[in-house]
Amino acid sequence: LLLGCELTASTKSYTFQVDEEDNFDHILALSVVCLTDGAKDECNVVEVVGRNHENQEIAVPVANLKLSCQPLLSLDNFKLQPPVTFRLAAGSGPVHLAGWHRIMHREDVSFEEDDDFSEEDEEDLPPIMPAKK
């Protein structure tokens, strides 16, 4: 599924959420962030706000766009796990974000210990020696 949103001075954030109770895994991939018609020649900083492994909110800038020097940034399908908020931290936009949303059926897979691999099968690696001067 394609995703698109626009951040402006009046709409500074957009939150992408999914139903966490469904039986699917969701991946959101951000492809392009670009200034659109009507943008001023000012720095427009776009942040991604999400949660880390300790469930603390974190904000990370992913784009700093300016009409005269960098109006477009390709993020090469930067993958995020919903829920995630895109926020215009500086500037007035408009900034358009485009990407895709992938939905995968969650399989009920049990992670039992694999009998084909054990610690006994690991090869002994030689110790790391200090570099010769």
Automatic annotation (TrEMBL):
Ribosomal protein among keywords: no
Ranges of compositional bias, category Acidic residues: 111-125
Subcellular location(s) of the protein: Nucleus, Nucleolus
Region (Disordered): 111-133
SUPFAM superfamilies: Nucleoplasmin-like core domain
Domain called Nucleoplasmin core: residue spans: 3-102
Keywords, alphabetical: Acetylation, Chaperone, Methylation, Nucleus, Phosphoprotein
Top-rank lineage group of the source organism: Eukaryota
One Gene Ontology MF term: histone binding
Keyword Acetylation: yes
GO biological process, one term: chromatin remodeling
PANTHER family: NUCLEOPLASMIN, NUCLEOPLASMIN-3
Similarity section: Belongs to the nucleoplasmin family.
Function of the protein: Plays a role in the regulation of diverse cellular processes such as ribosome biogenesis, chromatin remodeling or protein chaperoning. Modulates the histone chaperone function and the RNA-binding activity of nucleolar phosphoprotein B23/NPM. Efficiently mediates chromatin remodeling when included in a pentamer containing NPM3 and NPM.
SUBUNIT field: Interacts with NPM (via N-terminus). Forms a pentamer with NPM at a ratio 4:1 (NPM3/NPM). Two pentamers form a decamer.
Protein name in the entry: Nucleoplasmin-3
Originating species: Cardinalis cardinalis
Gene behind the chain: Npm3
